[in-house]
Amino acid sequence: MPYFLGYTYVAVFLLFGILIPVGALLANRLLAPRHPDPEKLQAYECGLATPSDNTLPYNVRYYIFALLFVVFDVETIFLYPWAVAFNRLGLFAFVEMIVFIGILVVGLVYAWKKRLLEWL
Amino acid sequence: MNLAALLPAEILAGTALAVLLADLFLPHRDKAYLGLLSAAGLAAALGGTARQLAAGLHASLWGGIFLLDPFALFFQTIVLGAALLVLGVSLPYLERWGRDDGEFYALLLMAVLGAMMMVASRNFLEIYVAMELLSVSSYALAGFLRPDPRSGEAALKYYLQGVLASAALLYGISLLYGLSGSLDLSVVGARSAGSLGVVALVLVAGGFALKIAAVPFHMWAPDTYQGAPAPVAAFLSTASKAAAFAVLARVLLTAFPAAQGPWQELFAVVAAASMALGNLAALGQRNVRRMLAYSSIAQGGYVLIALAVATPTAVAASLFYLAVYVFMNVGAFSVLSFLAGPTGGEELADLDGLAERRPALALALAVFLISLAGMPLTAGLMGKLYLFYAAVQGGYAWLALWGVVFTVVSYFYYFRVLRHLFWGTAPPRPAAPAASVPAGLALGAATLATVLFGVFPQPLLQLALHSLGMLR
Q: Do B24 and A103 touch (CB under 8 A)?
């Protein structure tokens, strides 16, 4: 049973995770003065006057950049613990990580040669 | 030890990366070498795996994450063999479509790598990662004929339902992890008894059932098999299906023997529904590729009888059936890939009088269809015989009877194709392109194996029984 007691923490975290944002929004609703007008209801776009609706179709190229970004973002997540424990892991982990980075580099070369890194 | 045992998979991964890189730097006229390089990599991996199988390797790798036992090696051999046949057929097919660059081969090799790792995993996380490698590569392969909107449709439908299945699988795995505190197949089952464990098991089974295209997770199959490149349809309906079946069998038999009663009932219903729906829906199809798609749903149903019966004989029979099914189904899809061009050519009427125009192709297609139907002197009959016999032995006589009834129903649509092949009057039409050497080799090997295992089924059956012996 002690294993399942560990889930009490999860339940408590969940409870607070729900309470805090809901409480903040509720307090805001109760305390803040509200004087809406059309200008204020616009989508916020860097403080400039909003030129158009915010439900535009986006260029599909953003998707590729996002994908490439995620690949190398995840790579860093793997690299940090590896670097911290580097002294204790020895040669095998070093070679392992070189192989992993090598595979990612092949992906980068592929994207480069396919001209995905350029804004055409 | 670990690295040496995984050498076939390493060869495959290396070849895939090499092909992907070489594709970027080779001029277009030299791209044919990429296909040959891929074939060499696949053949080397197949040779290595077959040697391990013959040597009876039984090794637990990386602290039990991978288990290379005869069961895994048997399925790895099936998958690699199917991929080699598919590759041989792809070479002329892609050339005709003008899509013969290295990407296809690299994707195919990665899909095969995923399937190989999947059947050898004994850890849910590793199973999931390997299955995603297989799935993501398959989605891209299904949509590979970019100018053809139907290929895009095939990829999108497969992708959307595939993600849903992945989500179900992942949710099931997370429930099992919550219940048992482990992802190891040898521990999970014992610690996750109770109703929540059953829910988790159903979710996990649903995730794999989509890959097998079993009812009620079959909806993607007809559209995907019809729209995807024909060799890819061949790969999805054989290698991908076999790999998912292998994992499902391993999960159920090694991790959940305690819950055997409930999942036997579940798979009896799924198998019966797949046989009925697949065979009945195939009756109305005019497009031969779509007909084969429904037929492959039904074939999945026959194989799933093994999980309903769950005796060693039944599971060995399913191993035999999946092995010979590779030859007949890849073969049937391949013949269609020769005939069809960008303008179609896969309707029943297009096959009229093929025996006069291309006697060798017509004969090969006839052999594959007769075997799928389960006629004497073909491997298909022996496979069905073993499965139904095991079902009767295991107390599921009604399921065997159900299978026999729908086998008879299936004669109608398989033999209708034969009528068009041999007795149809050929309209004048441009001759189909000549088959190339690798494609001819692949097709010849598939035809030969279909007949050979029909006449001499014993060695393969012995191998299947032996592979199973060490599963538990």
A: no
